[in-house]
Amino acid sequence: MLREIEALRQQLQTYHLQNSWGLQRFASSPEDIRFYTSLLGSVCIWMSPATVKASLPHDFDGCYNNTQVVLDCTELQCQTPSSLLLQSEVFSTYKSHCTFKAMVGMSPHGTLTFASALYEGSMSDKEVFHQSGLHHS
């Protein structure tokens, strides 16, 4: 049963990637996923303001009723590089270990609408925002 569920999950992921990006010959191997992720870089899937407004949570009524996206950075712990220069680039003073940082955007009702590429953990959230190109979208 678990094997069937996993196969179904992979088929759904492949179908989603094929339809979202027009990748007709997409295979869901880890190599292909890494290739397309590096090719696509940041992923930005904006919803129309009407769609966001129609599903706006009650907590956003009033002061936040025009919110389209909620942005935040997240950090993923990585192995400590042997190079001191690389260590200084990926070391996060906030997390006190080596990390990569990404900016994610969620619609108010919780749908992922933006995911940036990964950046050095030492980079500020503001710099990740500028590097992601999101402010040009």
TrEMBL record:
<dbReference type="InterPro" id="IPR027806">
    <property type="entry name" value="HARBI1_dom"/>
</dbReference>
<dbReference type="Pfam" id="PF13359">
    <property type="entry name" value="DDE_Tnp_4"/>
</dbReference>
<keyword id="KW-0479">Metal-binding</keyword>
<dbReference type="GO" id="GO:0046872">
    <property type="term" value="F:metal ion binding"/>
</dbReference>
<feature type="domain" description="DDE Tnp4">
    <location>
        <begin position="71"/>
        <end position="136"/>
    </location>
</feature>
<protein>
    <recommendedName>
        <fullName>DDE Tnp4 domain-containing protein</fullName>
    </recommendedName>
</protein>
